[in-house]
Specification:
single chain, three-stranded antiparallel β-sheet, 8 helices, 5 strands, 41% helix, 14% strand, A disintegrin and metalloproteinase with thrombospondin motifs 3-like, metallopeptidase activity
Length: 221
């Protein structure tokens, strides 16, 4: 995740770089570094990001996402920063926009087959405030309208639902899957962590103190 700012004294463009990563079972997000920019072009910014991560021994090929603002040098499909980054790390999707572009092309394709012209709803526009009863983020074209008012809010809704339904407490139930014979006998699970997780249901077990030794027997045979 990056964003550029202008230094108030030197008037030089500075890029702030943040990282979001999976640390064990926890997702961490933190400030990483400042990068000075010679120019604000897609090529310059992308090169600065790549070189900075390489210098700090961060393997960019393992990146699975990118997040920037909507500046032209960032979002351009041909020469934008996210496009250049994906040349190095193909799995580093640019938020939802990469997938959305594919979805929108499919919609246009199917709509053309049935003679439907994709347009923005009435009352939508760059500065329109006429529509107040549904999402109406400013947009300049139908593609941008449905990205900002449908695709992104829907993705946010899904993330919120996942976080709500699969929070840390609810995930304790996943430990039960470790009791499957295949998981135990093939050594696909860490026995110690499974035992600790299953002790959440200790009061419901006839002899919880023998759980560890019993699972070791299962693993052996």
């Amino acid at each position: 995740m990056t964003d550029e700012v202008t230094h108030p004294h030197s008037n030089q463009e500075i890029l702030s770089v943040c990282l979001k990563l999976l640390d064990g079972n926890e997702i961490r997000e933190f400030f990483f570094d400042f990068v000075h920019l010679e120019r604000e072009t897609g090529e310059t910014i992308a090169s600065a990001i790549i070189e900075n991560l390489k210098h700090n021994h961060v393997d960019l090929t393992k990146a699975r996402g990118q997040s920037y603002d909507s500046a032209a040098c960032i979002s351009s499909d041909k020469v934008g920063v996210h496009t250049r980054i994906r040349q190095v790390s193909p799995c580093a999707l640019h938020d939802i926009e990469d997938e959305y572009n594919s979805w929108y092309e499919e919609v246009i394709h199917f709509a053309s087959k049935v003679g439907v012209n994709i347009t923005s709803p009435r009352g939508a526009g760059p500065r329109s405030s006429r529509q107040i009863y549904r999402a109406n983020a400013p947009s300049t074209c139908p593609k941008e309208y449905y990205l900002r008012n449908l695709a992104i809010p829907f993705a946010d809704y899904l993330l919120a639902e996942f976080n709500s339904r699969f929070n840390t407490e609810d995930r304790k139930g996943i430990e039960i899957l470790a009791l499957l014979p295949g998981a135990i006998t093939l050594g696909a699970v860490d026995l110690e962590s499974v035992v600790i997780g299953l002790m959440f249901w200790g009061p419901d077990q006839p002899f919880s103190s023998s759980l560890r030794s019993e699972m070791k027997e299962w693993q052996r045979y």
